[in-house]
């Protein structure tokens, strides 16, 4: 076991780093980076700049979710007597960044785990979008292949929540177009370079935004927020009759009326009477 040298209790410290402006690092996060026995980082070149800003000279070790299992196990073993700070390249570790396997294994080993909240690009983009924030779903990066991307969007198309995606500049226009095709042409926002000098949020429909970036892929870190689906118009008499006829081919009058009432949000008694007419 390694010898403990810092003033921190042994265990894992999840440190949220800036997503742009280095000044967004919290004082508590900076203190842990100065005191930890070692800092596990996604990329030593990226994290070295933040550690200098925090006044930290602590040693770094590379860690990401594709690290060999024995690398992760060594870190978990060291947590028995040392403080390990976990830092991703930007924002909060584990949010589309490395870390969940390390947390899982540390918890299984009974190690002390502390999180130091701070910046997250997904949350920051929600605050900039002007879209509903009472319910949202973070989707990370969409699959790159067309079918897999479409299947993923179809899974969440009916969800009454704002959707949040990470995306890269070269893929942005194509992804926005796919979202419009599978989700409907909803209101959306594209936020990039959040908290940096050239921060920008563009709002519009998915089709408008896709056209905007078709010939000018943006640079920097990008977050796409997509509003929830609009209210569906009330089902017409024709819609109800069509649904009842289909249901009556396999169900009794009572069960057909119940199924269609639930599906279309209509009165079950009225549908029962109409199903009786159609059956007769």
Number of helices: 11
Mean pLDDT: 92
Helix content: 40-55%
Largest sheet: 5 strands, parallel
* Strand ordering within the main sheet: 3-2-4-1-5
Note the overall shape.
elongated
- Low-pLDDT regions: none
Report the β-strand fraction as a percent range. Answer: 15-25%
Count the strands?
Answer: 10
H/E element order = EHEHEHEHEHEHEHEEHEHHH
Helix/strand class: alpha/beta
Gap between N and C termini, in Å? 82 Å
- Please give the radius of gyration in angstroms: 25 Å
Summarize the structure in words.
The model has no long low-confidence stretch (mean pLDDT 92). Helix 6 packs across helix 7. Strand 2 (38-41), helix 2 and strand 3 form a beta-alpha-beta unit. This protein has helices at 27-35, 44-54, 69-78, 100-108, 121-129, 146-156, 169-183, 206-214, 237-248, 253-264, 268-279; strands at residues 11-15, 38-41, 60-62, 83-87, 113-116, 136-141, 162-167, 187-192, 200-205, 222-226. The chain has 280 residues and is an alpha/beta fold. The chain contains 11 helices and 10 strands. Strands 3-2-4-1-5 form a 5-stranded parallel β-sheet, with helices on both faces. A 5-stranded mixed β-sheet has the order 6-7-10-8-9, sandwiched between helices. The chain is elongated, with a radius of gyration of 25 Å.
